[in-house]
Amino acid sequence: MRTRFTEAFGVEHPIVQGGMMWVGRAELVAAVANAGALGFITALTQPTPEDLVREIARTRELTDKPFGVNLTILPSITPPPYAEYRQAIIESGIKIVETAGSNPVDHLPFFKDAGIKVIHKCTSVRHAVKAERVGVDAVSIDGFECAGHPGEDDVPGLVLIPAATRRLQIPVIASGGIADARGLVAALALGADGVNMGTRFMCTVESPVAHAVKEQIVANSELDTKLIFRTLHNTARVAANAVSAEVVEIESRGAEFKDIQHLVAGARGRKVFEDGDLDAGIWTAGQCQGLIDDIPTVADLVERMVTEAESIIAGRLTSFLDDAAVRA
Q: What are the chain's domains?
């Protein structure tokens, strides 16, 4: 399945494993790369830029295929040393970067000078158009169904993807709500050049999260997420559990961030992924968990998606044309 995305980024399949905090580590990223898709190490999962350099080297020991690094840029009282992480990426010889969060314009000249292609993750058409204008090579457009931060416009992928692709000239990666071949085919039909999956890749054998988390994703339906930080205009979609329910309840009474800060601390979410204590903190999951019913290897997942997508296109969709021809 060749698309503008596979051609431009040198991968076999139009499937991306985007950056995920505490999840985008060497074992998963290398497995994605070896399966012919594009995986991203999450830079800020590594405590220091030096640790990121080591994680990149560790990934290279596991694969000789292309992979990238995600650098999420967010406002913070004490921001990470973004310039140092950026330099670690460049000096490690990475050729693909996924940016997310704030506008990447300050980082683009450095990446471009190093011959690095940049995919920027957006949650709205206006931000995607701006990203194209400042010079990114592709955008990943996140529909409202996604895990993590879907923006504040609440536009689902069925509308957001074609709304973006009709405005942009660069490749578009569809993200949010995609977990199988049907989502891949639908995204291509809507004008995208590939798909990005987070929750689905989190629920694979090579994913570094606790097995209890994977089992819970399989058990959950599309209804088992919560939207937190809505009243703070920083909406995030997370898995439904005791902590996210408490956050929503506190917000419903009117709250400032300090009122829920102890519940949403990143260290608590990390404990969920590492220890498998599902109520230790909040953890991200998308609505597509309702479409996930197994924990395959990455290789099996990618092969299944591509094979089934080709079957849908050549079989079910083509049959509509054949039937129309017969009726004519």
A: 4-202 (3.20.20.70), 211-287 (no CATH)
